[in-house]
Write a structure and sequence with these properties.
about 75% helix, binds phenylalanine, mainly alpha
């Protein structure tokens, strides 16, 4: 048994919802979602994404929370104590590795947001679309600067984690979420009232049905849904393990999934109308620089834009931090549950992830062979994002749904979720989804994608 003061608990139900929403809401919503919509052909991607969120991912979020709360353990141990003498702990191990892998590229982009706080505050990003794009390109190609920035992100994350679960995570999330939401709505209103915004809106909302049978696009939508909701790697198992039995996990999951989806959709309502209106851009080719190119130009159309812009990037950096915290918390809690002191776990992990982040940092123009990997036609950072988001997380989600639905047992999960008389109104529907729909749908998408991949 491990000393329980090492682990900690959430201060309140609201604190939990904010922390879990803080994990979910991050770069995935504001940086990743618009970029994926652009790559995936616009509205059709949005539609596929929403189906993945509500039919596949939301049931898995409930499953992860139930497993975490019932076991009171981090992912590896959660599987091990729920099904002793089996190989299921490996699923938890895969999640821990995914946390490390995702954080290694996530920290790089979070570092960009830190730099853009400074750039916006000092008025460095101004000019024509082409100039602002070139500014971004030159900045991300600066290897030294970006190593320092990624390191800064990881060090801040580690410092917050050392403050412990409740104080660190809850406090950051409580202030940030409402502020971010408010600012996004304001920016959305500005974007939608720009001349020519309707073209962007049509791109965002009117599906091109030809793309619906493209397995790559479906796979990207699924991966984005897992990534955005922090699922498939045990982040929600870990957060669920800090949840008290008095807190209704199902209601909390509804809140977290709704907030996360609302923020992603809002980001699209900002980027596409603004992008089409101001720049007449081609979203399918804009890639990781999309928001860094569009947003500074949107701020320029606002009175006091410099101030709004700075505030926006501060909030985006904070949103990224509440996600990096949860990414680091998964491997940390795994080591703490193995008897490591929290401090040692955090320090060893931070050092390793920093090392792993370096190839991603250098893949944005600093080192040519990393910036266009031979034979793959993509940079190292994009490769990491694809491997972890589009493959590891859905495979993790597939295994979690099998585990909770069949191995632990959906009825046991329902019993856990309804302890202390908690309401679970659609329990029967959830059981059907977690046992049949989630695993079969994920398997189908993965097989289709793999076939397309190997067929070239
Ligand atoms: N959900 C976070 C985001 O959208 C990223 C994340 C993925 C966090 C997986 C934790 C676990 O930015």
């Amino acid at each position: 048994m491990i000393a329980s003061e090492n682990r900690g608990n959430w201060g309140s139900r609201l604190g939990f919802i904010l922390a879990a929403a803080g994990s979910a809401v991050g770069l995935g919503n504001i940086w990743g979602f618009p970029m994926q919509v652009g790559k995936g052909g616009g509205a059709i991607f949005v539609l596929l994404y929403l189906v993945c969120v509500f039919v596949i991912c939301f049931p898995i979020m409930i499953a992860e929370l139930a497993l975490g709360r019932s076991s009171g353990k981090s992912p590896i141990e959660a599987f091990a104590v729920t099904k002793p003498r089996s190989g299921w702990w490996l699923v938890g191990t895969m999640g821990v590795l995914a946390g490390v892998g995702i954080l290694s590229f996530y920290a790089v982009i979070a570092g960009w947001t830190l730099a853009y706080v400074w750039f916006t505050a000092t008025g460095a990003v101004v000019g024509t679309s082409a100039e602002i794009g070139a500014f971004f390109g030159a900045f991300v190609a600066d290897g030294n600067k970006n190593v320092v920035l990624s390191l800064a992100v990881l060090v801040i994350t580690a410092a917050i984690l050392l403050g412990g679960v409740q104080k660190g995570i809850e406090r950051a999330a409580k202030f940030m979420m409402p502020a971010l939401f408010g600012l996004l709505i304001l920016l959305g209103l500005r974007a939608l009232t720009l001349p020519g915004a309707s073209e962007g809106l049509a791109y965002y909302l009117k599906p091109d049905w030809n793309e619906i049978s493209n397995p790559q696009v479906i796979n990207a939508a699924l991966g984005q849904a897992f990534f955005s909701l922090s699922l498939g790697m045990g982040a929600m198992i870990t957060y669920g393990s800090y949840l008290s039995k008095q807190t209704n996990a199902v209601t909390s999951a509804v809140w977290v999934a709704s907030l996360d989806t609302a923020v992603a959709l809002l980001a699209g309502f900002i980027i596409f109308p603004a992008g089409f209106s101001i720049m007449g851009f081609d979203p399918s080719t804009s890639g990781p620089g999309l928001i860094f190119a569009v947003l500074p130009q949107l701020f320029a159309t606002l009175p006091g834009g410099q101030l709004f812009g700075t505030f926006f990037f501060v909030l985006l950096a904070l949103a990224a931090l509440t996600s990096t915290i949860s990414l680091l918390e998964v491997p940390t809690s795994a080591l703490v549950d193995r008897g490591w002191p929290r401090k040692k776990a955090v320090l060893v992990l931070t050092a390793s992830i920093t090392a792993l982040a370096i190839p991603s940092v250098l893949s944005q123009g600093a080192v040519a062979s990393l910036s266009s990997l031979p034979g793959l036609g993509m940079d190292f950072l994009t490769l990491m994002a694809t491997v972890w988001n589009n493959w590891a997380l859905p495979i993790g989600g597939f295994l979690i749904s099998i585990f909770v639905g069949w191995v632990w047992g959906a009825d046991k999960a329902v019993a856990e979720l309804t302890t202390e008389g908690a309401h679970f109104p659609f329990a029967k529907g959830w059981v059907f989804l977690i046992k049949y729909v989630c695993p079969l749908a994920i398997l189908f998408i993965i097989i289709m994608t793999a076939r397309g991949f190997f067929a070239g």
